[in-house]
Amino acid sequence: MSAGITEARLPRGFVDRTPDEIRASEAMMRVIRETYERYGFEPVETPLVEFTDALGKFLPDQDRPNEGVFSFQDDDEQWLSLRYDLTAPLARLFAENHERLPKPYRSYRAGWVFRNEKPGPGRFRQFMQFDADTVGAASVAADAEMCMMMADTLEALGIPRGQYVVRVNNRKVLDGAMEAAGLAAPEQAAVRLNAMRALDKFDKFGLEGVALLLGPGRRDESGDFTKGCGLDAGQIELLLAVLDGKGLESLSGVLAASPRGQEGVAELVEIGALIRAAGYRDDRIRIDTSVVRGLEYYTGPVYEAELLFETKNDDGQPVRFGSVGGGGRYDGLVGRFLKENVPATGFSIGVSRLTAALKALGKLSSADARGPVVVLVMDRSAIASYQTMVAELRKAGIRAEMYLGSSGMKPQMKYADRRGAPIVVIEGSNEREAHEVQLKDLALGKEMSKDISDNEIWRASRPAQVTVKRADLVAEVKRMLGAAGGRTE
């Protein structure tokens, strides 16, 4: 590398976004916004940077100020961090403005979040989330509404019934199972956490695999051994009852000795009644006590939006697409800033993942949107004439640009092709004297050229190129764009 030349390189865990990707995600988010607003949620925006202690979850110490988040000190030597999600900033915003905000407070937000973690396949340090939250509502009716809104959002995006499901559980059920299994003591926190993680492997390993992880441990196909929780047979049987899907009535009997577990079951029964009353059936929203989310975060109902159709993994094997978002009740987060406890519930959509799912289903076009009409500059001394044409096209609502480089006609045509231009406008000195312009339909020209193999025929036919009066420029461009079935704006 030559001295003084900086290497162009992208940091690991970050990506550059193409026009195609940006347009696809923005089209998707427009639909999401419309659905949220139909439910009465209002947009709000918080900054990328918060005081680190306000984020809470990854509070840095003096030795490791960047644990989990990207952090820095300001001029006052206070620690600031890039937000790692959109929920903690919402909690701060509500607490700071709670006296003037309506309660319950319903809002949605979309934006970038950052994780200072080791990147890997599908794991990025910067990614976009789209959240909706209700703060100040203790009733599980707020949780039921979140689930209904998730289901409606997926259908509004074109995902048909049978290809998605919103699964609902309750953290109190899981806590109750731990309590009934004799694992509620403070000194058993580590065992509870590992047991929760084992239960979370149900989709991957099934009941038998989870039983091994709860007991002596599990050896996988490669021979690697994962140490188990060391629970006895009775404890394992009780915890597996949460996963076996025999229904809430059966689970209520299993958790009869746990008041917290009984409360969780009752809340799930109420959520089920509310969603059925609103016309949602099990094919859309399903009570499923095998859902394990937010081991140290959620305090009540938890829910997950899962796509059921198959795609292929990196090895070419068919796999279920899986989760594209989820959330739950987090009654303890906002109260960190206030003297009283503030109930809250919400969910988050992974924008990139949902965009990928919609593309896989053919619900979002992967092709670049049509580029602008390009006015070629054939005569530098007449540049004002070309600028006038561009201004007229734009005024008529047509995307248009004048070529601003210094190359000749052939490179200009190549430029227009790379820009995805549907039409180029050509005005040389002869056309100007005749008060005419040439319009070349690039897309039609490509299509017609497939059937032309002789240069003489090509020159004689002048495919997809027309000459029109200068005064008819805008009208003819509109006609050609309409004939191609494309939009002008």
UniProtKB/TrEMBL annotation:
It is found in: Cytoplasm. It catalyses: tRNA(His) + L-histidine + ATP = L-histidyl-tRNA(His) + AMP + diphosphate + H(+). L-histidine binds at D85, L86, T87, R115, Q129, D133, R293, Y297, Y298. Residues 1-372 form the Aminoacyl-transfer RNA synthetases class-II family profile domain. SUPFAM superfamilies: Class II aaRS ABD-related, Class II aaRS and biotin synthetases. Its main location: cytoplasm. Keywords: Aminoacyl-tRNA synthetase, ATP-binding, Cytoplasm, Ligase, Nucleotide-binding, Protein biosynthesis. One of its GO terms (biological process) is histidyl-tRNA aminoacylation. Its EC number is 6.1.1.21. GO terms for molecular function: ATP binding; histidine-tRNA ligase activity. The keyword Metal-binding does not apply. Pfam families: HGTP_anticodon, tRNA-synt_His. GO terms for cellular component: cytoplasm. Belongs to the class-II aminoacyl-tRNA synthetase family. Homodimer. This is Histidine--tRNA ligase.
